[in-house]
Amino acid sequence: MPLNSHSRIRGRAAGDRPSRPSRRFLSGIALLLGGVPASGAVLLVPEDHPTVQGAVIEAASGDTVRISPGTYLGKVEFQGRPVWVTSTDPENPEIVSTTVLSTEGQGTVLIFSSNEDRHCVVAGLTISGGYAPTGGGASCRGASPTLAQLRFLHNTADLGGAIFTSDGSPRIRDCQIINNRARSGGAMAFFGGAPWVERSTLEKNLAHYGGAIALRAKTSPTFQNLRIHHNGAKSAGGAIHAIGAWAEIENCVIHHNGSLNTGGAIWASRDANLKFRHSTLADNIASFAGGAVDSDLAVVQLYNSILWGDEPHEFSPLADTVYTHWCDVDGGSSGEGDLDLDPLFFDYGPEDYLLKATSPAIDRAEEGEDGLRWCNFSLDYCAANTQLADLGAYGGPGSQNWLPPVPAP
Question: Above pLDDT 70, what percent of the chain?
Fold first, then answer.
């Protein structure tokens, strides 16, 4: 199919057959699904179908829609179909960045509203230019799809700049969610359900409430192994803004987020209950109070975590329901087992806020073991770091999830 300047598709010419996704990628997604990858027919875009929406409509249960590099305009509604929609190589950053779905400001890009479940998979694409009241990049209403290895860039909404969920429990993994905007939840907003977000980066998103994440009542999400950094809120919660939600936050690095009012990293209110385990909150800033955490009529609990270098102080003086247990807290805290000692951070490659071999936070957690074998990374750790769990994001059993999944043989 020849392309011209008026085409709704810009990219690979027809006749160029795309490559297959790698075995490693398929194995990793299969682990999420608890089964095997899709094994039905493969529908190629644009070689067989000129639009992604047209291919999805034609696809049967278990089919794969495989998209060649290019920019494809228009929304994609899944209409309850358990299909896979992927680029030609979800593990290749260049392929992912050049396989783009966009509405160019004319609505949500990916729409899940017909009880889609985890067998509806979207992977290895860039989702950009969405603009809608809820979820500029993706909207999940009563749906629980699998979103993996996606890049959400420059999407805008009132609620959830990149992703919005309402009474759904999507699984979001290995995604980059960068430079999105919203009134609440610059990267994502969850209103009900139990979303699961892991091994993803939320960066440079902006909102009035919750620069990266907004959580509302009846929501019980789980966040694991996230990098949440350089997000900003005009009002409260540079990283996370929670009202009435219950959240589990494990092995997350939350740094350099900011609020022009309160809660540089975290703001919680109205019966919210946030539980942090083995996480690192560092170098966040609030103009008014609570560089790391501020709360009002909410409970924030931190276990085996590190809070360091947040300004003007780690906790708001009025936040009397913030509890620390076996944490390293800049300026000190009265929780059982707490420290007030420089954790000796350093950065290595993409990993921020690792602990030096001489850190007092090593082997200092209340209980458990590290998932990572630190001695395998550097001999410096052999004498100092046993398998006893460290404090912070790279300690405890969940630390092993910072490593990529091992493909099936």
Answer: 89
